[in-house]
Specification:
About 30% of the residues lie in helices and about 20% in strands. The chain is α/β, with parallel strands linked by helices and about 325 residues long. The strands form 3 sheets. It has a 9-stranded mixed sheet. Strands 8-9 form a two-stranded antiparallel ribbon. A two-stranded antiparallel ribbon has the order 10-11. β5 and β6 form a beta hairpin.
């Protein structure tokens, strides 16, 4: 797999005892988006100026492959091992704690003196710390509570059992009024974001990533962030009674939320354009911190788009994903 091979090579550099420079790494894996759905992949339905720029200044791989479903892709990226070794063949089950059984790239990075963070979607067995991460900002996961306990605490704090904003099951929300937990990695503090219809999950996670990068710059600590993102996975719509794309925020030029695109269904295109704004916001901060030359930004996806590539086993539609590498020593 091209994506996995590229990441393994990058991490091999991190563990080199003779390396003069320890580059920071941000590995962003989006959720359910094919290469062809981005402007740099040929789509005329979206505008993605930030990702286009990263591809021009770095390397935009025209052919990069994941798997047609997400969990095998996640298992390979985490461990560097193929499904026949890990048992991570398909979507419904998670056969083992891959962090304890095989180890992950975060464990490798920590041996080289890196501080590690995971942000976004867990979808693994066990605890975040089992997989080598010091900090996390995670949807519907806490190392200190079961999922049932977490959901009960969210509802007790005022969260909707059925969320009127997202129109899905409130305790499972990843977008509006999200069930998000942050762990600071120092005192093992557990902080659940309060139920709020105006909070947007991917937005909070983006700011957590920026906060982490800023603190690592201040302490002169090399870092690696694994960002298995939430966008653009569909969510159950309790009004339409189907899986649907969620309406995205309206943003100003400084990435502040000014409203919501509509009160109904969103679209794949609006999800991708929001994701592009996230990319612009994060990379702008990397440049403002003065760490672009020693930060490698990797952008990819776990599998192809829903109703096009996802679970498509008979053609290249399923595994053909975006793969951009920018920053550090990477040049076009």
């Amino acid at each position: 797999m091209a994506v996995t091979a590229g990441i393994v090579l990058t991490l091999a550099l991190l563990s080199s005892a003779t390396a003069q420079l320890k580059p920071n790494v941000l590995l962003w894996m989006t959720d359910d988006i094919s290469f062809k759905d981005f402007e740099f992949g040929g789509s005329t339905a979206v505008s993605t100026p930030n990702l286009n720029r990263l591809g021009r200044e770095g390397v935009n791989f025209r052919k990069a492959w994941a798997t047609p479903v997400c969990r095998p892709s996640r298992g390979m990226i985490m461990s560097g091992a193929l499904p026949q070794a890990t048992g991570w063949w398909d979507q419904p089950t998670i056969p083992n704690n891959i962090g304890l059984t095989y180890g992950t790239f975060a464990h490798v990075a920590k041996t080289a003196g890196y501080r590690t963070m995971m942000a976004g979607k867990f979808q693994l067995k066990g605890k975040v710390k089992d997989h080598g991460f010091d900090e996390y900002c995670m949807w519907e996961h806490s190392d200190l509570m079961t999922t049932f306990e977490l959901r009960a605490q969210f509802v007790a704090a005022g969260g909707d059992a059925v969320n009127k904003t997202e129109r899905g099951t409130g305790v499972q929300n990843r977008y509006w009024q999200p069930l998000l937990v942050r762990h600071d990695g120092v005192n093992y503090n557990h902080f659940m974001y309060p139920p709020d219809d105006n909070l947007f999950g991917p937005h909070i996670i983006t700011e957590c990533i920026i906060d982490f990068m800023t603190r690592m710059k201040e302490s002169n600590t090399p870092w690696i962030i694994y960002f298995p993102g939430l966008t653009a996975h569909q969510h159950w719509d309790n009004v339409l009674k189907k899986q649907a794309y969620i309406a995205m925020p309206i943003l100003d030029e400084d990435f502040n939320i000014m409203g919501r695109e509509n009160e109904g269904e969103g679209s794949l295109e609006s999800n991708i354009e929001y994701l592009d704004a996230m990319a612009g916001h994060i990379t702008k901060k990397i440049e403002e911190l003065g760490i672009k030359d020693k930060t490698v930004f990797v952008f990819t996806s776990d599998n192809g788009t829903n109703n096009y590539g996802k679970k498509s086993l008979a053609s290249e539609f399923g595994p053909h994903v975006p793969h951009i590498v920018w920053g550090g020593p990477v040049k076009q």
